[in-house]
Amino acid sequence: MAYYINWYWYKFARKREDKSLIEIEAVLQKKGYQKPARTAAFFSAGVDSLYTVRRNQLNVPKEHAGSIKDLIFVHGFDIGVIPERGAEEEFFDYIIQGLQEFIEKTGLNLIPTFTNLRSLTHKADLFSSNQVWLDEYMGPAMAAVAHGLSGRLSDVLISSSYEIPKLHPFSSHPMIEPHLSSYDLRVHHDGERLNRVERVKLIAEWPLALSTLRVCFDGETGQLNCGKCPKCIRTKLELMCAGKLQEAHTLPGGEPTAQTIKDGLHLANQTISFASTLKASLKEIGRADLARAITYKEWQYYLSQVANWKKIFSTVDKVVLKGWLRRKFIGP
User: Fold this and answer.
1) Tens of pLDDT along 144-193?
2) CA 276, 283, 170: angle at the middle one, nearest 5?
3) Which of 47, 244, 276, 305 lies 20 to 30 Å from 103, alpha-carbon distance?
4) pLDDT in tens, 128-138
């Protein structure tokens, strides 16, 4: 809570110097028990979670307490949360069936899990509900699901979305998630040393990962990834940098062009930081044309921020008026 207050004092309509916290009232368990160590990881079949599994299996002996034994696959975080797509239970089942080869070859146990936590976010106010999820709830929601399994688990790994130089206020963060541990369960933030392209290069050398990869929010039964949304385009470019796009059969549509990037690669607050690393990697493989297209999208993003009157209003209020207007007229 102290980190969130420091990061989001303006969003929460506080005075910056107000450090007060909600008092936690809970029954103290004075006697504990020692259960066998068992480590799990959250798994979406995306780049970050595949990297966590691969790095763990390459570096941790199977008999070690830190060796991943279970993968927690959740319905309710990125599946079944878009109203117009419905509950997507059939798609969830389709993904689980498609993961059977991965589970068999890695020797891991899959734990399908259902939660409605994402639907419980408070009113978004000037902020979109998705931004509230990313800023405040994503990491704690994963920890909450893990605590629901704490009778089985001693440790759980949550894959980092960003590398160390690009860490910023975010609900899935190495300063947040370890504090969500308890006596029964330790929560670990994993994999923040490598950037996104470096992670893709590591898993791209693992054929099983390329046949499993699911990065898309627009996938459907029969097709894990749409191949044309911003996340698919970005992942394709990263696989090009690794020289493995042609082997990634779960990503349809072929190699992105400069026009594909200009038309389909939308950069937002949470993805703009990926652009610089991707541009540098594309230049290294001789695709300066694609790097220039990303630069175009960067400028498009920055210009949209300059023209955003809500952003300008908030910045002036935050920097000059110390949040007075928000506290008086909008509230948390």
Assistant:
1) 999 999 989 999 999 999 999 999 999 999 999 999 999 889 999 999 99
2) 20
3) 244
4) 567 888 999 99
pLDDT at 18 over 70: yes
Predicted structure pTM score: 0.93
Beginning with the edge strand found earlier in the chain, give each strand of the sheet holding 186-190 in spatial order. 109-114, 68-75, 39-42, 155-159, 186-190
Tokens of 3: 């980190």
The count of other CB atoms within 10 Å of the CB of residue 14 is 17
DSSP 103-131: HHHHT-EEEEEE--GGGG----TTS-HHH
Q: How far is 102 from 150, CA to CA, in rounded Å?
A: 24
List the Cα angle 40/45/50 in 5-degree steps.
65
39 φ/ψ angles, rounded to the nearest 5 degrees: -110, 135
